[in-house]
Amino acid sequence: MMRIKILLTLILFTTFFYTGCKNQLLSDLIxxxxxxxxIINLMTIDEKIGQLSLFTxxxxxxxxxxxxxxxxxxxxxxxxxxxxxYTVDYVKDLQKIAMEETRMHIxxxxxxxxxxxxxxxxxxxLAQASSWDTAAIEKAERIAAIEATAEGLNWTFAxxxxxxxxxxxxxxxxxxxxxxxxxxxxxxxRVRGFQGSDLSDKSSMLACVKHFAAYGAPQGGRDYNTxxxxxxxxxxxxxxxxxxxxxAGVASVMTSFNEIAGIPSTSNKWLLTDLLHxxxxxxxxxxxxxxxxxxxxxxxxxxxxxxxxxxxxNAGVDMDMQGSAFVSHLxxxxxxxxxxxxxxxxxxxxxxxxKYELGLFDDPYKYxxxxxxxxxxxxxxxxxxxxxxxxxxxxxxxxxxxxLPVREDIKxxxxxxxxxxxxxxxxGFWSAAGQWEKCVTLLEGINNKVNGTVKILSAKGCNVNDDxxxxxxxxxxxxxxxxxxxxxxGESKEMSGESASRTDIDLPGVQIELARxxxxxxxxxAVVLFNGRPLAIQELxxxxxxxxxAWFGGTQAGNGIADVxxxxxxxxxxxxxxxxxxxxQIPIFYNTKNTGRPINPEKPYEKxxxxxxxxxxxxxxxxxxxxxxxxxxxxxxxxxxxxxxxDDHITASVDITNTGDRDGEEIAQLxxxxxxxxxxxxxxxxxxxxxxxxxxxxxxxxxxxxxxxxLSYYHTDMSxxxxxxxxxxxxxxxxxxxxxxxxxxx
Length: 746
Ligand code: NOJ
Known about the structure:
Helices cover 33% and strands 17% of the residues. It has 21 helices and 27 strands.
């Protein structure tokens, strides 16, 4: 009885607390809206337009710098917000102009692409996702926010949550991969990390979910290209990830460069107003991507910048990034009635509310604290965590005959390859204020690890991406003198990220020749791969005894990778994006449909089936795949029952035994298949995962709970519900392996 009472009190308290917090947020919002209204009443049209404008400083731009005169613009009240400016001194100087030299004294937002760390750089987001560790991801963003706010910033253009199924697209490095459900969890974790529990805290910054919407599906994987997809695919696969960030309270949304079904996002009223504000109840503000209002002219939906400005603000854009469209044309548009003053005021209000939420009206210089700037940057504990995260993000793709970890008895180790000692590449693209000089390379990490106990030889062998083979012989002779070779291959950092699409995603340059020659020496060889996307490395997979995918691990990359290579960290990462065998298989992703003529796995080249003449349908490495230095055995799945009512819980359990000789973490994954639907359903959909540490020789029982509503999908009429009928449930180590059981919803 007593226990029940305690439980009830707890529930009541939690409900009260939660409702209390929610009500508090709502009442704050009302207060801020009222305050914003009273300011708006005092503002001229020009001053209002200034608040809707965001201009770059002359630091780190990702497009044409259209206005060199941003300081004058601030003075004139025409630049209400600045991006690409950080450090306390710089931000303070600019903020001072807004506060002291403009009539309205409205503080500015300072935005920046803080994507995977600010000064301490963590692994690229796709690598972070491979850890399937949302707590670690949230922590990395928290540290990024602490560092960024200590240097004057109050707004990050992250998280990028664009679902992507085409590794030719360079920006896959910035997202979480190909799965909607996992992507949604990670999106929410990132928002929580950046924004903290209270936006007015000095270490919190506004997050900005991007790029709304479906920027990750450009035709042919070519950046900025057209996106065209069914309404169902958009709703089912692409939109939920943004929605998850909205539900987590993200303060702003960035439009995407692309069109969807003929309508560019930046002028898409359905997307920005009907869906985002009306249906999803998003309360924050919408900023464009870099000059994407101007690009409406190229898209061919506006004759000139004035029409582009009118289309975008009327669609729901609140802030113009770098386009000058609003500062140049909104005044006339409002005066001529093409844009109503009400529309203008709503946009201004959303931006002022964000400034209130940050507490900028109370203290415009709250992010300009020299002491914080000195103390909060690259603290030893952040570097320790960066090292841990670099190790956690590694995915062991192949490990024949236990090639890795490196044996303890080796006397001479060769570290070969164009990425073996390349500081500049370790950060990966979008490295904010990260300093490449401070990065630990693989060679340095290995040297730190062996600390003089092993003789280390090294050779570059070749460059990342040219046809010069003159260094290969020397690399081979270095390999011959060693007991073990580590071969550092892959892409350079500029080969992924924005504007970095590739049609050939094999190893660039002559690296495969280097690999062939070194492996031919017969020495034990482990390849460490550096890459911002899945690569089509079929030949490498055939010839290399071991491959560890290290992505771009950030400031501490080399130390983190060395921890894995030498077995101090047992690799536990699993891919969140499929690795194709060849470019012709793209787009390739795990949650495909059966089709009317499914491939016969026994006869993969049979005619008149959905297959290729020259390649299997299966990928090189599937979604969810990754090895460990130990091995795990899954038991059969046990279900609490096989027939479920709509309000029942479906409970599925397996025992996982660590059958190897060292402790290890396993990411057990649960997938479902709805056999017959109102519309076709994918063969597998991820619906759960558990990351568990299992000691050697021990067995851990893992239990997943689903409810029938977790099996909902968009029906013919676009209603979202689940159906009675038969399902299959799979639990296993990746999307291709594991056992299954059947159940029904009655
Ligand atoms: C263009 C990119 O698409 C976007 O992600 C980024 O935030 C802006 N440039 C600002 O740098």
